[in-house]
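Batch job 17 of 40 flagged for manual review because the log was empty.
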Amino acid sequence: MLPSELIERKRDGHELTREELGFLLSGFQAGDVADYQISAFLMAVYFRGLSAAELSALTGAMIDSGRRLDFSGGETPAVDKHSTGGVGDKVSLVLAPLLAEFGLRVPMMSGRGLGHTGGTLDKLDAIPGFRTQIDLTEFEAILAEVGCAMIGQTPDVAPLDGRLYALRDVTATVQSIPLIASSIISKKVAEGTEALVLDVKYGSGAFMPDYEDALELAQILVTLAAAEGLKASALLTAMEQPLGVTVGNALEVRESIDTLRGGGPADLREVTLALCAEAAVLSGLADESTARARLEEILDSGAALERFAKLIERQGGDPGVVEDADRLPSAPVREPWLASHGGFVGAIDARQVGLAAIELGAGRARIEDVVDPAVGFEIECAIGDSVETGQRLATIHAASESAAEAAADRLRRAIALVPDPPPEAPPLVRCRIEPGG
């Protein structure tokens, strides 16, 4: 077989066999199939999709490319959450210690920013000294000691997915439903998760802006997870505007700490509690109302923040950031962005905000780009807000005045002021998907 022959067949809409996919993917791992050839294959999948058999084969190849952990023997269930990506989505930083304090184990293997969305690892890297690249033995030890652990993909777990993930980010193939599904489920199966709650986002800042596409993705994810032996469900959540107030790594860590202290923005708190309650139900520890009440109590008490401090210290970071957020990186330039006229906030294009954050340096335009942890935005308005001329709508955190000016231009395209109140925004949590419907 020739790689070009298989790429051509997929490009023309033909189904590849498990053996043909195996040849292509194992060749990529071994270095016999080039990055540019796999990039062409990814683009073919983007346009042609994958059959159920192809999706199963791709997911299996990712799982089998490395080790498969097993946490099923523990006293408490091992659960995880995965978001399909959003702007300002720092839920994982709150959810992991909150669920650990609730009594679950959370082995969380996360990724970096993808496309216009932020990544959990980039946020954790903003904490001085925090180590996300640790071996699996230490990962297991941290989980046993703290109740949660948050690391990046290792060469031992689904390494094929890691390489494909990096290529997808720079080849405009992020939004492919089968590629998203296989990437997510392969990692979660390989990391030893027993139950998985999926946060599938739709709206301007999501990879699946259209609700129907997001619904299709949620159904495929839940079905694929169940086929691989995971208890799984999905919540469809709105991403019409950034989640919370901050966009940018150190800024989002600050906001996460505020939320773990019992404060934080109402939308971030709501989405986090909904996902945590879902994880508790999947694990069989409580019904939804009981779980929700207990989770709110933990969050308001600050106990989950103490757990987060323990996690930071155990993974080599400075736990002092929990009490003194000024220990986090901060940008030298802070520029307010003001309303040019009065009216109402009619829309906040979260995708444009995410792209503006990348231009500031909070994300990557190329694989080799270095992230600036300090830069980003505070978006100090929400859809439907009434505003006056000269009112501050955002604060830009930038490395230079010129970078701040460029970000302001992008914000002008992202935040629309209209003369009349806009229609009521959709609920944050739209619906729940479980196997079979």
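Reviewer: the log was empty due to a logging misconfiguration, but the result itself is present. The chain has a mean pLDDT of 93. Unflagging and moving on to job 18.
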